[in-house]
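Researcher: Structure for this, please.
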Amino acid sequence: MFAEPFDDPIAAFLASWDRVYATAPAGWEPASVTLATSAPDGEPSARVVLLKGADERGFVFFTNYDSPKALALDANPRAALCFFWYWLGQQVRVEGRVTRVSPEESDEYFASRPRGSQVGAWASRQSEPLDARATLETRYRELEAQYEGASVPRPPWWGGYRLLPERVEFWQEGEWRLHDRLRFTRTADGWIRQRLYP
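Model: Predicted structure, token format:
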């Protein structure tokens, strides 16, 4: 069960993070999270991204700003995240508004990435049609040579988003499908906690 009682869902999420990582099965990335977006015409889309930061300001992930997910977020800046830690029987859902992080924050994170990932960000035209795998690999090698002996700058089309939670739900698997669900809704005065039927 999630530790109870608690009144701050962000603090509770962060407090559970060490346990999630310590107990994760080999080869599983606990920071993987499903990101759901919706285009202005209402067309939904979901994909897995990696959470790269979480604090009282929100949940941060990074992407190519020309990707479909980024274009959807820029046009309709609302999204949902869903973490599922199956080995703990736990799920956390987060919904809210999304904004781009500052260029300085994107620069800082990009500089911390492995060099190969930095070069890969320049090589990939994310989600655009690719005629052959060899085209991508050739482009990657060309960029490796271009930046040999030099630092790799952040591409201007690459950066982060922060989701500011308006609703957070904690779900704990229970016997006979009597799951435990706690939903938190942000108000001007703080968080309202409600227990939900499974």
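Researcher: Any notable elements?
Model: The helical segments are 9-23, 68-75, 103-112, 115-123, 133-146. The longest strand covers residues 158-172.
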